[in-house]
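Handout, section B. The chain below has 283 residues.
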Amino acid sequence: MSEPLSEPRSEPLSPAPPPSGPLLEVSGLRRTYGAVRAVDDVSFTLAAGGSLGIVGESGSGKTTTARIIVGLERPDAGRVLLHGRDRTERVRGKAHRLARARQVQLVFQDPFLSLDPRTAVGAALRETLRLHFPGTDHRHRVAELLDQVGLGSKAAEALPRHLSGGQRQRVAIARALAVQPAVLVLDEAVAALDVSVQAQVLNLLADIREQTGIGYLFITHDLGVVRCVTEDVVVLRHGRIVEAGRTAEVLAAPRHPYTRLLLDSVPRPGWDPQRIAAARRAL
């Protein structure tokens, strides 16, 4: 590991959450696009240091929910509270917008699309740090971040195209962690990786959560990921929550037919895709 930073770190503007309350509270979210109700009365909470999965098929409202939580979209109704403060309210001033952006960070499915192919890894991390914490020498922080995600300081000089998919995703995670967020939203963040690389990235995320106490929202269709890395799960269908609870309990004994269908859709010996398709049409 690298030596501790010699320069002081910039602290988040928001106070730490009270231990007894949720870190993130989503209540009554609604978002429509024309006649399509993409998110319809979605509510859930994320405990401090917790990990929650939001699962469903394409078009279920997972990504729209994530974009609202991060602040990339505004809901038609509902609230998103972080540390008890409403993230859906408009704020003025660059400093306040940056402070809000720091609190919740997003990691996308394809890091190659979110990284500038002409910018070396270290320069990309320094650019993020300079934007949020100007006036500080960030060389030590860059080395620390690369160490934290298991890449090492030599990766700082590499361009994204010289890295593997798993390494690029580690860079994307490092960039999100650079601003010291309270919540990391991972939108299908391991879906494009090979199974063995998925396991490495998920183990890395588990280690980071243990070290930092950060909260995770996993947006995914992969129930295997949910089973491995979340304590709680929310199941979305057509923008509505059809089931929610502790992950182990929901996956062991699902109550809603759609949740059972998602579990039946996981390929295994005897799996029949035609039967699954017929069951999906019947719901």
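Note. Residues 253-283 form one domain. Compare this with the example in section A.
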